[in-house]
Structure formats: structure tokens, C-alpha cells
Design a protein that fits this description.
globular, 587 residues, 22 helices, 2-enoyl-CoA Hydratase, Chain A, domain 1, alpha/beta, 24 strands, 8-stranded mixed beta sheet
């Protein structure tokens, strides 16, 4: 009996400790989630560029929220719409005295890509044009950060800092020699001479076609960046190009002389300006300041009719994957908007390199069905290529930034086999089959020429379907589309010239265009994909909410692990993809 009572007591103590720990966690969550407060006069709006800016709200775990709370962060990512909307509304809000920008641009996947940075930069320009000051203090500056903050009134740089201005570079890793060394076989089929997604696996060097398209793409992105910075800093573009070609690194004194920055000084110099803006006495902490996301939470939209924004961000895959672009999930959201009478138009925001061809077609079907009933406008983010463009083609309008990466109209098939690797380690394969193609999906043999020929026929058919869909959606002749296709990647600026896009602008302009097409005078924006509350995250962490294909993706710790992640996303049942030919790391 005593032993039984001891066990009961131990269980009760454990439960009490668990409940106490849970209460502590909840208190931390509540403490980290700033309750929406009134905006006081002379409030300073703040933007932290060290927080990545994505399109859709991030898919977080409860542990992420706890980590943010422990480190004093309010969030792990911004959404582009909350940043741009907050800055625009603050420009008109008499209670906001200025904008302070801190931190350097930090990218995470396709977050804080060049097209998104352009939209933020333009919002900062509009804020300054309202007559309110924009201030930033930086220890060092790189091209991306300077691109964003260059419209500011006051750019203060640490006296021992520097400006990195050495141009843009893109790296593509090639694995053929490594695969040969370790006995990994690769077979590929493709349509489009620029469709170089298979190159890293079947070659040990970059093809001339791929090099040509990369040079053209980086040239367009670089010219846009230099032109924008030169305009803001009142410099000749040639002067900035000379820095790229001859210096690369600009020390603080030279940066001041060139007018890349307005002044040199330590943080206390910036702090004195901020205290003056907020009416804070010397030596006192600034209390009247508000992060852009927190300010966005105080804003209220009016209007009965709705313009829905649906985010297509990530690699397009089959199923319901919430971390990538699960085709069934996206199709369901489009269907929901089509059947909702209060939704008068949809903006599909695309930030994707593509992925599975069949999955892209599932989404494209719903885009066409929606457009038959209501207006649908596409807004292209940093990347809207291959399968991303497949989905976009039927839209009423396509809005693109000059530095968006788009096009890549092409298809490829890629197959790996481990036959040599396993045989070299003494593993022998035997198979029993009822037909010659029954083990077609095996990883332990190469595909026969007959099988590759059949796959090539399928790739050709899908590529032809891709061309037809683009021709129909864009109102172009098929031969014209084929000339622009071949898997070639284009900048947004070129896409406008070639007729692959309609208008220059970002998400803000695309939403206004959708409202015009729906003839709406007043409306509110409805985002279907929203950030989960801390309570839902806690329930999910405890296993008390259902999950849909919620496989956890750990952070890639090396480029080899990035390759494994890429392979995981190439899981189309047919092995055929409409995907951009590379994952660019543009520095």
C-alpha cells in the first residue's frame, strides 16, 4: 500500500511540475506577444532588416516562439505586406514622427530577395516623400542593405566601418565528379537548351548556354540595383560601377566623401537624433517606438467586399505540404475563394522556382476555373519561374518587379541510381517482376534506353502542354512562346519587354489592380494563410491538433545537406519537373 501511495504521489508531483512549467511557458509567450497598444504621439516606427521578409507568414513551431521570447525577439520573420502597409500608413499617421531602420539584410531561402527588397525600398521612399525623416545607423553596409536604406535622410556609418560594393555573384555547384567517385549514376532528359537544372548532376562545368543566361540575368539585376542607389544618393551610375570594377570595398571616410552615407559616427549620434524625434530626454530610454509588425497589428481595414491574397511560396510539390507549396492545399484555397461570394477578386503572390509539373498543373487548373468567374491578378516576387510561371500564365494581369527572376519555361526528368555504389560495397540486387518495366522506379539500376525514350516522349508532351498554356494565357503565338522558352530564365525587366508580364509593380499595386478589375471602390484584403497563434502552436506541439504532412525540415548545415533537401523536393511520381534550372545564391 505504501509503495502504491508513493507512486500516486510521484505522479501528482510530476503533473504539478508539468503544469507549472506549462504556465511559465504561457507567461513567456504572453510576454513576448505584445498586446496591441495605442499609438502615442511622437512614436518612432522601427524596421529590423535582420528579420527576413517573406511573402506568407512563416510556418513556425512552438519551440521557435519560445526561442524568440527567450532572445527578446517579437518574431522570426516579417511578411512583405505588413512591412509595406505599415510604412505607407505610418507616412500618413500624424502620431508617427519618423522611421528608424536597423540591422543588415538577412536572407532565408527566398525571403528578403531582391524583388521584395525593392518593394520595401519604394515604401521607404514614399515615407520620406511625406516629409518625415528616415534614419539608419550601420556598422557596415553591403549592397543589399544599401539598396534598401539609400532613400534615407540620414545614413550613419561607424567610423571604422565599410561599404561592401563588389557586385553580384551567383554560385552553382557541380557534382558529376563526386558522383563518379562514389558510384552514383544519373540519367536525365529535358526540353529546352537553357533548362540547366540537370547540369550540376551530369556535368562538371557550366554550359555556355547557362553561363550566357546567368550573365544576362545578373547584369539586369546589377543595373537595377546601381541605378536605384545612384538615384537616391544623387550619384552618376558610372561612378558606382567604377567602385564595383576597381575597389569592391569602400572604407568609411571614402563612403562619406562619395555620399554613399551622410555621416560617420557611433550609435550615440543616431540615438540623440531618435530621442529628439520622440521627445525623449537625454539619458532616458526611448519608450515611444513601435516595430512595423506591431504597428500593422493596430491597423484596421474597412469595406465589406474582399480581395483575397493567396501566397504561393516555396517549391511546388504534390499533396498538402504546409511548408512548401502543396498543390492540393493551394487548389483548395483557390476553390474556397471562388465559392465565397464576398471575395470579389484574388491576388496570387508567387515566390517559387517551380517544382513538380503535375502539381503545378493541379494549381493552374484552379487558376483557370477561378478566372472564369472572377478577376485573378498575379504578383511575382523574387522568383516566379518554371512551374511558378506555369501557374501564373492564365492570370488576367501579371505584375513583376524589374529584378524578379521569371520565365524558365521548360521541363526535365532526372533519375539517380546507386547500382555501382552498392555493388562496390558487396550489396547484390536481385529482382522478380511480372513485366520488363515493373522496377522502373528502382534506385539500384540504370534506366534502359527504351525507358529513357518513353520518358522523353512524356517530357516532350508536358513541354508542349506548357507552351500551349503560356500561349493561351498570354495571347501569344505558340512559335513566339517557344522562342522565349527553352528553359531560359529572364529578369522581370526583360519579361515586360518580351510580353511575359504586363506591369511593373509589387504586391501593393497588384492588389489595387485586382480591386479595379472587380470594380470595387472600397474593400478589405483577406489573407488566407495567416500566422498561427501561440495557443495553436502549443496545442500542435502537444500533439493535440491534426497535422497534414507536417514533416520537420531541419536547417541545412552545409551545402551537401542543401543538396539532400533539393533531392527530397524532387519526389514527383513521374520524375518530371517544371522547375527553375538552379537555386541561385546571389551575393
Amino acid at each position: 500500500m505504501k509503495a502504491f501511495l508513493k507512486q500516486v504521489l510521484a505522479v501528482l508531483v510530476a503533473l504539478s511540475l508539468f503544469c507549472f512549467a506549462l504556465l511559465v511557458l504561457v507567461a513567456l509567450m504572453l510576454g513576448s506577444q505584445e498586446i496591441s497598444r495605442a499609438v502615442e504621439p511622437k512614436t518612432l516606427l522601427t524596421l529590423d532588416l535582420g528579420i527576413p521578409i517573406g511573402d506568407r507568414p512563416p510556418r513556425e513551431e512552438f519551440s521557435d516562439l519560445l526561442d524568440n521570447a527567450m532572445q527578446g525577439r517579437s518574431r522570426s520573420a516579417y511578411t512583405l505586406r505588413e512591412v509595406v502597409t505599415a510604412i505607407d500608413r505610418a507616412a500618413e499617421d500624424s502620431r508617427i514622427s519618423g522611421l528608424y531602420i536597423k540591422g543588415q539584410v538577412v536572407r532565408s531561402g527566398y525571403r528578403s530577395g531582391w524583388a521584395a527588397l525593392r518593394e520595401v525600398r519604394e515604401a521607404i521612399q514614399r515615407f520620406r516623400a511625406s516629409g518625415k525623416p528616415v534614419i539608419t545607423w550601420q556598422e557596415t553596409l553591403d549592397e543589399a542593405t544599401l539598396y534598401v536604406v539609400s532613400p534615407a535622410n540620414h545614413i550613419l556609418l561607424h567610423p571604422l566601418g565599410m561599404v561592401e560594393f563588389n557586385g553580384l555573384a551567383a554560385e552553382v555547384l557541380y557534382f558529376r565528379d563526386a558522383f563518379d567517385r562514389y558510384g552514383v549514376g544519373v540519367q536525365a532528359v529535358r526540353d529546352g537548351k537553357y533548362k540547366s537544372a540537370v547540369e550540376p548532376f551530369v556535368s562538371n562545368r557550366m554550359s555556355e548556354a547557362n553561363r550566357a543566361q546567368l550573365e544576362a540575368l545578373l547584369g539586369d539585376l546589377s543595373r537595377e540595383m546601381i541605378s536605384a542607389i545612384a538615384t537616391s544618393r544623387k550619384l552618376e551610375p558610372q561612378r558606382l560601377d567604377d567602385l564595383v570594377q576597381r575597389q569592391g570595398l569602400v572604407i568609411a571616410d571614402e563612403a562619406r566623401q562619395l555620399a554613399l552615407v551622410t555621416a560617420l559616427g557611433h550609435f550615440d549620434v543616431a540615438l540623440a537624433r531618435l530621442r529628439k524625434l520622440t521627445g525623449t530626454k537625454p539619458g532616458k530610454p526611448i519608450e515611444r517606438r513601435m516595430d512595423v509588425a506591431d504597428y500593422f497589428d493596430t491597423l484596421k481595414e474597412t469595406g465589406g467586399d474582399k480581395v483575397a491574397v493567396i501566397y504561393l511560396e516555396g517549391t511546388i510539390v504534390s499533396g498538402n505540404d504546409p511548408r512548401q507549396v502543396g498543390a492540393e492545399r493551394l487548389a483548395r484555397l483557390l476553390r474556397k475563394a471562388r465559392e465565397d461570394d464576398a471575395v470579389k477578386a484574388v491576388v496570387l503572390r508567387i515566390n517559387s522556382p517551380g517544382g513538380s509539373a503535375t502539381a503545378a498543373d493541379v494549381i493552374e487548373r484552379e487558376v483557370r476555373l477561378y478566372r472564369k468567374q472572377k478577376p485573378l491578378v498575379v504578383s511575382m516576387g523574387t522568383v516566379a519561374a518554371s512551374g511558378g510561371y506555369w501557374v501564373a500564365a492564365p492570370a488576367d494581369e501579371i505584375w513583376v518587379e524589374p529584378n524578379t527572376i521569371t520565365g524558365s519555361i521548360g521541363v526535365f526528368g532526372l533519375f539517380f541510381n546507386l547500382q555501382q555504389l552498392t555493388e562496390e560495397h558487396g550489396v547484390r540486387r536481385e529482382v522478380v517482376r511480372t513485366g520488363p518495366f515493373a522496377d522502373f522506379q528502382s534506385l539500384f539500376r540504370a534506366k534502359s534506353q527504351e525507358e529513357l525514350d518513353r520518358v522523353q516522349r512524356l517530357v516532350d508532351r508536358i513541354y508542349e502542354g506548357f507552351l500551349q498554356r503560356v500561349a493561351q494565357g498570354r495571347g501569344m503565338r505558340r512559335d513566339r512562346v517557344e522562342a522565349l522558352a527553352q528553359g531560359r530564365v529572364w529578369s522581370g525587366r526583360q519579361a515586360l519587354v518580351l510580353g511575359l508580364a504586363d506591369h511593373e509593380g509589387g504586391l501593393r499595386e497588384a492588389i489595387a489592380a485586382a480591386a479595379r478589375r472587380a470594380q470595387l471602390e472600397s474593400y478589405r484584403v483577406l489573407e488566407y494563410q495567416r500566422a498561427e497563434s501561440w495557443a495553436n502552436l502549443l496545442l500542435r506541439a502537444l500533439g493535440l491538433t491534426p497535422e497534414e504532412n507536417d514533416a520537420r525540415d531541419s536547417e541545412m548545415e552545409s551545402r551537401w545537406r542543401e543538396l539532400l533537401q533539393w533531392l527530397r523536393l524532387t519526389a514527383d511520381p513521374l520524375g518530371i519537373y517544371a522547375r527553375m534550372p538552379f537555386d541561385l545564391s546571389i551575393h
